[in-house]
């Protein structure tokens, strides 16, 4: 097999190959691609749609297949969103705001994304922020309080936590860790 016949093909060469398939062969190949993607992890309809589009499949073949996968219960954006929220909040420590943004990037409808992220209540979000701060503080034994505060605020901001919650949690956790003064005492919290 030459370079042009194997996986080193350009996207244009791949689309010509898909275009050369009969409609039935194209449907079968699209189904294989979707099943391969779903075998590794759950996917949204939009993720599968984009994958098929990248591979050069006709829009109607993709939509027909996605409809069948949806009817069979193999693709469910609401279930995907709930699973994604649980996993990313528990394992990555992401806050609601970051979770909604990720779900939207994955093609989940805004309403579904907000609803799924609603599973994370304020108390759970605050507790997860505390866990993240405590863990990070253990690695910051040789830095001053100002540097620690800046780094902790940045970490929580990147994970989608509100500024008010971040300030409160960091101030309390620094006190708990024995910081001599808490610079955040003078900061107005929202």
Automatic annotation (TrEMBL):
Residues 125-170 form the RecX third three-helical domain. Signal peptide: none annotated. It is found in: Cytoplasm. Residues 76-116 form the RecX second three-helical domain. GO terms for biological process: regulation of DNA repair. PANTHER family: REGULATORY PROTEIN RECX FAMILY PROTEIN. Modulates RecA activity. Belongs to the RecX family. This is Regulatory protein RecX. The lineage of its organism: Bacteria, Bacillati, Actinomycetota, Actinomycetes, Pseudonocardiales.
């Amino acid at each position: 097999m030459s370079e042009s016949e194997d996986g080193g093909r350009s996207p244009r060469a791949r689309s010509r190959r898909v275009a050369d398939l009969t409609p039935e062969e194209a449907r079968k190949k699209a189904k294989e691609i979707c099943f391969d993607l779903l075998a590794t992890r759950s996917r949204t309809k939009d993720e599968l749609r984009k994958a098929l589009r990248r591979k050069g499949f006709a829009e109607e073949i993709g939509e027909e297949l996605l409809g069948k996968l949806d009817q069979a219960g193999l693709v469910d954006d609401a279930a995907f969103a709930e699973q994604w929220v649980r996993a990313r909040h528990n394992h990555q420590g992401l806050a609601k705001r970051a979770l909604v943004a990720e779900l939207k990037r994955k093609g989940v409808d805004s309403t579904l994304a907000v609803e799924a992220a609603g599973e994370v209540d304020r108390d759970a979000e605050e507790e997860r922020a505390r866990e993240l701060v405590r863990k990070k503080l253990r690695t910051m034994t040789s830095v001053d309080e100002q540097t620690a505060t800046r780094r902790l605020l940045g970490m929580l901001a990147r994970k989608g936590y509100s500024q008010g919650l971040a300030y409160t949690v960091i101030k309390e956790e620094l006190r708990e860790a024995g910081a001599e003064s808490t610079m955040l005492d003078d900061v107005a919290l929202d």
